[in-house]
């Protein structure tokens, strides 16, 4: 009897996120057999700590915190947008750039106003996924270079998607379908490396 990868490989992993956009994106690219479960689905309604000053540190902090609470194999991801003309910004503060409970729009407004009149619009997104199990972890990084637009364009996606044009495209992430975004996406690059690791190590 023939078998296919999805019949021989089934893994259920907790994704340490409450962000529905991230969950949706990661599910859209996860291979058959890998079941991704979000925090809400396991009844975790709190907030994971995110107090480090690098995306690597925050990603590890979220994953290790969750593992200590539940003891399940899990992964976390942390993402930052890094703008060349504003060294390090918004970076690890991408979610709260314009203040603690800032909306995506407020963060975009702050970024565009800081870049008003600035010619160098180069920026990159960086995602770091941390897989954590039994006190050990591995990290996977995805980077996408691009540019910040003069004004927002498009309505898909989330966060800074309306102002980020990845290199090789003329559209912002927010003007793309999810499939198009995935062809460039920082998140997909890190997730592909992670899925490959899982496949190599857990099959
Ligand atoms: P965190 O990884 O949850 O700390 O995310 C930081 C912030 O970066 C989010 O709140 C978004 O504003 C932004 N962000 C993360 N991923 C993306 C993306 O794929 N597109 C646009 N913005 C993003």
Describe the 3D structure.
The protein is built from six helices and seven strands; from the N terminus they run αβαβαββαβββαα. The chain has 203 residues and is α/β, with parallel strands linked by helices. The chain has a single domain (11-202), classed as Maf protein (Alpha-Beta Complex), CATH 3.90.950.10. Strands 1, 2, 3, 4, 5, 6 and 7 form a seven-stranded mixed β-sheet that branches. Helix 2 links the parallel strand 1 (11-15) and strand 2 (34-37). The radius of gyration is 17 Å and the shape is globular. The structure holds inosinic acid. The site of inosinic acid has 15 residues, from strand 3 and helix 4.
* CATH class designation: Alpha Beta
Sum up the overall morphology in one term.
Answer: globular
State the low-pLDDT regions, or none. Answer: none
In total, the number of domains comes to 1
Count of helical regions? 6
> Ligands in the structure?
inosinic acid
Instruction: Assign the structural class, choosing from mainly alpha, mainly beta, alpha/beta, alpha+beta, or little secondary structure.
Output: alpha/beta
CATH topology: Maf protein
Q: Mean pLDDT across all residues, rounded?
A: 93
What is the secondary structure topology, with strand pairs?
Blueprint: H1 5-8, E1 11-15, H2 20-29, E2 34-37, H3 55-70, E3 74-83, E4 90-91, H4 104-114, E5 122-133, E6 136-148, E7 164-166, H5 178-184, H6 186-202
Parallel strand pairs: 1-2, 1-3
Antiparallel strand pairs: 3-4, 3-5, 5-6, 6-7
Inosinic acid binds next to β3 and α4.
């Amino acid at each position: 009897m023939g078998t296919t990868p999805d019949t021989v490989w089934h893994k259920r992993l907790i994704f340490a996120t409450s962000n529905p956009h991230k969950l949706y994106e990661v599910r859209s690219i996860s291979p058959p057999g890998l079941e991704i479960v979000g925090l809400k689905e396991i009844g975790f309604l709190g907030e994971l700590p995110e107090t480090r000053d690098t995306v690597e540190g925050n990603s590890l902090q979220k994953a290790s915190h969750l593992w200590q609470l539940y003891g399940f194999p899990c992964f976390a991801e942390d993402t930052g947008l890094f703008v060349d003309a504003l060294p390090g910004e918004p970076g690890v503060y991408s979610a709260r750039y314009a203040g603690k409970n800032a909306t995506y729009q407020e963060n975009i407004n702050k970024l565009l106003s800081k870049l008003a009149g600035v010619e160098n619009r180069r920026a990159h997104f960086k995602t770091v996924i941390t897989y954590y199990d039994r006190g050990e972890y591995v990290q996977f990084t995805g980077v996408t270079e691009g540019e910040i637009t003069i004004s927002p364009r498009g309505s898909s996606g989330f966060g800074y998607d309306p102002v980020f044009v990845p290199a090789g495209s003329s559209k912002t992430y927010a003007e793309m379908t999810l499939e198009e975004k995935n062809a460039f996406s920082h998140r997909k690059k890190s997730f592909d490396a992670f899925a490959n690791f899982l496949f190599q190590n857990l099959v």
